[in-house]
Design goal:
globular, 20 helices, mainly alpha, 77% helix
């Protein structure tokens, strides 16, 4: 299977028709040499990834706080996690261009080592306590980030191999919809599990289950085909060309990446500290935070359904702008929060817009990239946008500790407004494709 080309894929007519009705127009699917079987496998891979993340993503900062960490410690974890991001994205792109085996790189780094390291979180309470445990969690999170970022450029290229460009928005919306449903169902389960078993056993059980589910995703991804990359075309950025040369050659990529830098900085201002605020100022339990996170996920289901179709009809750029404006409304509304119930409508708006903007960003990144340079374009975008992650969480965490959450919320809202304006003014959709 690994050496099968896309033109040789086969699938049963019944499965093809069912997937076509739900994901793709039947005419588009039959016109594209992409088997519904692999679209289905890729969908279930995302499902199990999301289940695994439901037991970790929301709860790693809470795990840190349970050992006595401060908001500055949470910011430090975010800073170190992002410090290594730019070089790892670029090196991941280099590996992808050199090996030309995207599937293998994803299996080794993202699905493989990135999942295995979850067991180290489980071992930390047996080995450390207090400040030592806090630094151990921060270090493990940084190493885990190395593995996932090394595989990220290849993971993006794999999407381009598997999913037809003309239906990219609808299919990825459908896939992310399944991931969001899984997150919605399992995040409260993780919160109840942690609360029932208490610290540290609840966290250890949650991370162990996350690892086991990640193994299922690893197996499913191994069933996908390894499609050889097209050779770089003359005049295109070839292997070995510098990143600066690629940016000079494509000013739209430069505008897309620099505006994304503003978006990334904005996300670090408030997003990492919502959980800290709920724990420290509102004294909410892990169970309540898990339920509120599930509300966010449920809202993302609607956002993906609506914005996935909008992206294909009216362009990924418009979906990005509308989602960014919606996120700009969320932060000021937190000033009105007095009880957990007040958070529910905010999480609805946040979940709708955040899922939509991330999906549209990924789709536009693919749409503007030449086929043979998808991994490179993804790596450049992620390297530039994550560079602020090395210091923004530290600054935001320090501001939170000294002045409370208000400055973070205000600057977050202004940042999303600025990002929407920059995209509207400087970023173009894909020429000849739906962008």
């Amino acid at each position: 299977m690994d050496n099968t080309t896309s033109a040789e894929f086969v699938s049963s007519p019944g499965l093809r028709e069912r997937v076509a009705r739900q994901v793709l127009p039947l005419s588009a699917l039959t016109a594209q040499p992409v088997a519904a079987r692999f679209l289905r496998i890729f969908w279930f891979d995302g499902l199990f990834i999301s289940i695994s993340q439901a037991f970790t993503q929301t709860f790693i900062p809470l795990y840190l706080l349970a050992f006595g960490a401060t908001a500055s410690d949470v910011g430090m974890m975010g800073a170190l996690h992002h410090l290594i991001a730019p070089p790892m994205f670029l090196y991941g792109s280099h590996l992808a261009e050199r090996w030309r085996r995207d599937k293998a790189l994803v299996l080794i780094f993202d699905h493989g080592l990135g999942s295995a390291i979850l067991l180290v979180y489980v071992a930390i309470p047996f080995l450390f306590g207090g400040r030592e445990a806090i630094w151990a969690i921060i270090l493990v999170t940084m190493v885990r980030g190395i593995f996932t970022r090394l595989g990220a450029p290849s993971a993006t290229a794999m999407i381009g191999h598997i999913v037809p460009a003309r239906v990219l928005g609808r299919y990825m919306g459908w896939r992310t919809l399944g991931m969001s449903v899984a997150s919605f169902l399992f995040q409260p389960v993780a919160g109840v599990l942690i609360a029932a078993l208490a610290f540290p056993l609840g966290y250890q059980a949650s991370f162990t289950f996350a690892f086991l589910v990640a193994l299922v995703a690893l197996y499913l991804y191994s069933l996908l085909p390894e499609i050889p990359r097209p050779q770089p075309q003359p005049g295109a950025a070839a292997r070995g060309e510098s990143i600066l040369a690629t940016l000079r050659a494509d000013r739209n990529l430069l505008a897309f990446s620099l505006s994304g830098l503003v978006m990334s900085a904005t996300m670090h201002l408030a997003n990492p500290f919502y959980s800290v605020y709920m724990v420290r100022q509102m004294h909410l339990s892990e169970r309540t935070i898990g339920l509120l996170a599930a509300v966010t996920t449920l809202a993302s289901l609607v956002g993906l359904r609506v914005m996935g179709a909008l992206s294909d009809r009216q362009g990924h750029k418009r979906a990005i702008i509308l989602s960014s404006l919606g996120l700009a409304l969320v932060s000021p509304l937190w000033f009105l929060v007095r009880s957990p119930w007040h958070i529910v409508p905010l999480n609805v708006l946040f979940g709708f817009c955040e899922a939509s903007i991330m999906m549209a960003l990924n789709n536009l990144n693919l749409a503007i990239a030449p086929e043979e340079q998808r991994a490179r374009y993804r790596a450049i975008f992620m390297a530039i946008t994550t560079s602020v992650g090395a210091f923004m969480p530290l600054v935001a965490g320090r501001v939170f500790d000294l002045y409370g959450f208000s400055p973070n919320l205000i600057t977050s809202s202004l940042g999303y407004l600025l990002y929407a304006l920059l995209v509207a003014r400087f970023v173009r959709g894909a020429v000849g494709r739906r962008g």
